[in-house]
Amino acid sequence: MLLHVLAMNRALSIASLAAAAVLALAAVPALAQESRPFNPIGRPGGAAVPGAPVAATGSAPIAPPPPSAVRATVNKSIQKLADAWNTPELRKLLSPTYYDRDRVGDALVSKVPRDATLRVLGVESIQVLAQYTQPTTDGMEQEVITKVSVTLRTQVEFNDPVLGFQRREGLNEAIFTLKEIR
User: What is the annotated signal peptide range for this record (predicted)?
Assistant: First the structure.
């Protein structure tokens, strides 16, 4: 009987080792399938990178502006955005191509307290995404289009009838399209 139990334990341990070996071998190809393809990094004069911003037809890329000029213009735009927040004026500032533009205004009216204000606590980063020139609609002048990504630390302040004065901080990204006639 003891010999039979030892033989059975030995058979189970051999079966366990065989199962572990099969699982280990099966896991090796799975690791190779996890690798991702390498995508080439775009460079001036090279082929276009898929997903990169494309300028309008008839436009030409230009050298990036000095950071202080962009920062001053962006700071004015940020202040306009903060002042217009939670008012009907916000819809006028949003691009016509902004996804669900009307829904943003409706959500502010229905979900945000009327006395809520947006305070910009700080600008984390400003990055120029694309910049190019194109002729104006009348064709007499050139306009410089600059797309800028701005990361903002913001705070919404409002009075809650039950809890009193409330603050909600957040980190937000805004993309501004700046136009300048030259």
Answer: 1-32
Backbone angles phi, psi at 97, to 5 degrees: -90, 0
Query: In total, how many domains does the chain have?
Result: 2
pLDDT digits (tens, 9 = 90+) for 67-91: 667 888 889 989 999 998 888 888 8
Q: Which domain holds residue 30?
A: 1-34
pTM assigned to the model: 0.59
Say if 55 falls within a structural domain: no
Same domain, 75 and 13: no
**What's the pLDDT tens digit per position in 113-134?**
888 999 999 998 888 898 888 8
